[in-house]
Amino acid sequence: DVKVTQSSRYLVKRTGEKVFLECVQDMDHENMFWYRQDPGLGLRLIYFSYDVKMKEKGDIPEGYSVSREKKERFSLILESASTNQTSMYLCASSSPHWDGYGYTFGSGTRLTIV
Amino acid sequence: AQSVTQPDIHITVSEGASLELRCNYSYGATPYLFWYVQSPGQGLQLLLKYFSGDTLVQGIKGFEAEFKRSQSSFNLRKPSVHWSDAAEYFCAVATNTGNQFYFGTGTSLTVIP
Question: Once rounded to an integer, what is the mean pLDDT over residues A78-91?
Fold first, then answer.
């Protein structure tokens, strides 16, 4: 089974801190994605990457950046955390070769900014 | 532009009753359609998917979904709901390359004994 691992299930950080959320997948997938999930808003795409060193903005990139130095790891960075970034963050990966499995999601990181 | 609409924000059903969750999509080409389930505090798990062929697809946990091109719908059904089915359900459409998905806003299911 494809496994997508997010390093923290729960995280509490202070306003203004630089926050790193880590995501690692073990199936050699080229595509990786970061979403945030908020009640009533569903999943909103923050950033995605189709290859190492490659990144594309999603629908809500403001206040975030990403890093993909290795194929298996995709990091989301909150440059200066603010309370409106308190949310559930979900990482996903997929193969571009349309293997039919769609996205595989990590378990999520519940981030609270105080 | 691609989009997915789940018109029901929240649904409550009794255990043992039947269930139908609605999903409508907007996509110019042949859609690739998915249903995911999210238990509290968890990530999303794939329930079932439709790519082509038989328009009635079977998934895990006794769920099925029917693709109706004329109605642009992909509704999820289960004949008899169990208490463990209480969760958030997301419908999604993928581009024909599979590189990007578009999600609905989700339907929260409550099951009462």
Answer: 96
